[in-house]
Amino acid sequence: MDAEAAALLGKYLGAGLACLAMAGAAIGVGNVAGNFLNGALRNPAAAREQTATLFIGLAFAEALGIFGLVVAMLLLFAV
Amino acid sequence: MAEAAGEESYIHPMDQFLIKPLFGDGPVGFLTITNSTLWMFIAVGCVAALTIFGTSSRALVPTRMQSVAEMMYGLVRKMVEEVAGHGAMAYFPYIFTLFSFILFTNLLGMIPTSFTPTTHIAVTATLALAVFVTVTVIGFWKHGTRFLSLFWPAQAPLALRPVLAVIEVISYFVRPVSHSIRLGANIMAGHAVLKVFAGLFAMVLAGGLGPVAILPLGAMVAMTALEVLVAVIQAYVFAILTCVYLHDALHLH
Q1: Is A2 on the interface with B (CB under 8 A)?
Q2: CA B143, CA B12: separation in Å to the nearest integer?
Q3: Run means of pLDDT, 10 residues per run, chain A, 79 residues
Q4: Is B51 exposed, middle or buried (0-12, 13-18, 19+ CB in 10 A)?
């Protein structure tokens, strides 16, 4: 295999591997939403006030997966 | 988008994000009117129309337009009061502007063949950097050098404080990065997935597998519904994170 083909192979492998970050984000987002639902069903009266906190938690958990996606996009289209 | 592909029948899913000048084929300069700026102007026009015509009659029983404007106002007002805390109402107009602009650019981008400026990091980074600079200036203006105590967690054990301070400084400067990339990449990824399914649909049809094409078509419809939801949630998240950062600057944790 010549150097160019190896570089291309590495590029696509790296892009695919970077997408594994989204698995972590999925676990994180599921944790946040699941625990919110858990608490909300125990005490529905307090749930409405906490939706803002829920969305902040979701946003922070999701951002890290999005970073992985950006790395994949950079590898595919910019490198 | 279709004509950009030329004689090739295959349309690249990233083609929709190309910035093109509206008039002529010249290079894109600082003042060139492109499809991106056009859709930003349309979004600003829609926001202005909604807020001006929505509140012009001020009826006790609101019309549909007035109740939409009131709902948006109420949502953002409640968010600023709850998340940014006491004394943040002075910055309500800024957060409402951010929210309505992002909401309308996202939603207008869901119209087929339109352009979504918020898919571009250049646009979202400008918005996020504006928030970052504003919040930092407000912090120094309100608290002077005491604002730096934000990076020095006084409740933590003394031995841990320098380590935590380094982490706090890094996380403070990563804020605009994550703030902008979250919005840009979410919207961009959604639109790219839509176009991937659309390309799949065209490929299946061209391949002569007629009835199978219902699968990518159904996926496209479902993704469109999801993307409308994401468009609203991402505008909400951008505004709420602005409130969180503002709360830090106003109240120092």
Answers
A1: no
A2: 51
A3: 86 90 91 93 86 84 82 81
A4: middle
